[in-house]
Amino acid sequence: MTEINQPTEKENIVTMKSNWKKLGLALGAGILVLGGACALTSCGGGSSSGSSTPPVVIVPSDPNGENVYQPARQYIEATYQDSAKKRAALFQYAKVVEKALADSGDKQLSIQHAEEAGRASECLTYTLGDDVSAAHASYEMKKDLRSIILNTDERNKAYFAYNDQLGGEVFKGTPNSQIATTCDISPATLPN
Question: How much is the mean pLDDT over the chain?
Fold first, then answer.
């Protein structure tokens, strides 16, 4: 007879907090999408007098966010409105995760994307201050972003397949003297 371990009360609380956080993020993303849809269709206002006004085109506020999975782009732009540096680093990371999902069946491309993800992670940590607290903040920010990116079973399965491709691989970090080079867009060129 196998024994089934029941989660502790602390594990249940952590799980509940995580689920509430995910629900909050999902609701926030839904509100952003609904707001964007209303902006495009002019819902809730105006007359139907037949006047033709040109449609509103929503352009990413940060050009580096182009070609990023839309829910991820919206999350990054809404959450980090005050920091172009954080947005650039998170867009870099989100783009790599997207490529990893698309190429999850190819071991060599998965290894390449893992190296790129490592550089994007180092860039984010560098952007945040390049110390232990920055590394922790970077981890939390990427974890929250991944919950947005991996929002379907299909995307989760692709992420697991990508990770399976990396079994047995070892990835070296960038020397500290070169860490600034890990960013696709130099944080020094961004305002905040």
Answer: 77
Token pair belonging to 181: 């080079």
Is residue 113 classed as helix, strand or coil in its secondary structure? Answer: helix
CA dist., res. 19 & res. 145, Å (int)? 15
Predicted model pTM: 0.67
Instruction: Answer yes or no: are the C-beta atoms of 146 and 89 closer than 8 Å.
Output: no
| C-alpha distances out from residue 178 to 9, 109, 173, 183, Å | 45, 24, 10, 10
Amino acid at 141: M
Segment (H or E) for 157:
helix 153-165
Most distant pair of Cα atoms in the chain: their distance: 74
Q: Between the CA of residue 18 and those of 21, 71, 144, 177, 183, what are the distances in Å? A: 5, 19, 10, 36, 30
Please provide the size of the chain in residues.
192
Helices (H) and strands (E) in the chain, counts: 6, 0
pLDDT digits (tens, 9 = 90+) for 126-167: 999 978 999 999 999 999 999 999 999 999 999 999 999 999
Q: Is 50 exceeded by the pLDDT of residue 57? A: no
pLDDT tens, 59-81? 445 556 777 889 999 999 999 99
